[in-house]
Design brief:
Layout (H helix, E strand, L loop, with lengths): L4 H11 L4 H5 L5 H8 L7 H11 L3 H8 L6 H10 L6 H17 L3 H19 L2 H15 L7 H10 L5 H15 L6 H20 L3 H17 L3 H17 L5 H14 L3 H14 L13
Helix pairs in contact: 6-7, 7-8, 8-9, 8-10, 10-11, 10-12, 11-12, 12-13, 12-14, 13-14, 14-15, 14-16, 15-16
Length: about 300
């Protein structure tokens, strides 16, 4: 059960040995702060942010503690969905079911989008019918396409359906998304998203045999993954770089692909490894060679 914000501020303040005087200074009168802790006085959002800074705590951590050290349901859903490493029907079914449960109690456009996308991805996995999966996902895209700006939640949604579209459309979508992300400057999550978007776009470009363009954006994405220690994404980038190099008849294609496969074996992510091996076998000119593929 969610705790009263003022009561929780009081508990954390005492655990940190901070006084009410320290907390209130420069933000509220001490009397107003005291009443806030007692639940007798509400405060503005700007005061709330300043008080969290005094507590040396992020909004995310405070909300997590406030909900008895748990994510609230829709936040947990977003984490589970956006952290899916691949389209596993079992996980997609579970997330879709959770989405529909949340929507019974409250309207939430992002949750509604996730429910639709799960259906589209399950359809794709079960039938391999890209056209039908795209038609289902276009409901989401049509809702977002005309917005003047996209923020991180919308961008993450777009990223999950990007590969369903033809490469020309996907390139335009990615260009607009990255333009939106530039507004975030050095914001870590936005920078990571640029890398992930480029990695996902590379899959489409390889599928359309645009290997030189795919190689260019893979190399850009790789720098992001190295900076933020995103090793699974980096492994995928190495594999796709190897595919592109092999198709462009350049050296080191096999070496790059081997590097990515080995990284995933060291990380014990055999599912993603097998997916990328499938990409090598379908798109690369590496299968005739003795590419490093474990049978574990």
């Amino acid at each position: 059960m969610e705790n009263n914000a003022g009561t929780l501020f009081k508990e954390i303040r005492r655990n940190k040995n901070f006084t009410q005087e320290f907390m209130a200074r420069g933000v509220l009168t001490q009397s107003a702060y005291s009443k806030f802790e007692l639940g007798k006085n509400e405060i503005s959002y700007s005061s709330y942010i300043q008080l969290l800074e005094k507590l040396e705590m992020t909004q995310e951590e405070f909300a997590y503690i406030q909900n008895d050290y748990n994510y609230i349901p829709h936040e947990k859903l977003l984490l589970d969905f956006f952290n899916l490493p691949f389209n596993d029907p079992k996980q997609l079914n579970a997330i879709g079911k959770t989405s529909r449960g949340i929507l019974k109690n409250a309207e939430n456009e992002v949750v509604a989008d996730i429910a639709v996308i799960c259906e589209a991805l399950i359809l794709l996995v079960e039938t391999n019918d890209m056209e039908q999966a795209r038609k289902k996902a276009e409901v989401v895209w049509s809702r977002l396409a005309d917005r003047h700006y996209w923020y991180l939640s919308e961008i993450k949604i777009i990223n999950t359906i990007l590969f369903l579209f033809p490469s020309a459309a996907a390139k335009e979508m990615t260009k607009k998304v990255i333009t939106n992300l530039k507004r975030y400057g050095n914001f870590k999550e936005a920078n990571k998203l640029v890398g992930i978007l480029n990695l996902n776009l590379s899959f489409l470009l390889i599928r359309e045999q645009e290997y030189a363009e795919a190689l260019r954006i893979i190399e850009q994405a790789s720098e992001v993954f190295k900076e933020y220690s995103m090793y699974k994404h980096l492994a995928a980038a190495y594999v796709r770089k190897g595919i592109c190099l092999s198709q462009l008849t350049k050296s080191k294609g096999k070496e790059e692909a081997d590097k990515g496969i080995l990284m995933l074996e060291l990380l014990e992510d055999y599912t993603l490894r097998d997916i990328l091996i499938g990409e090598i076998q379908k798109h690369g000119k590496l299968q005739q060679e003795q590419t490093h593929i474990s049978t574990k």
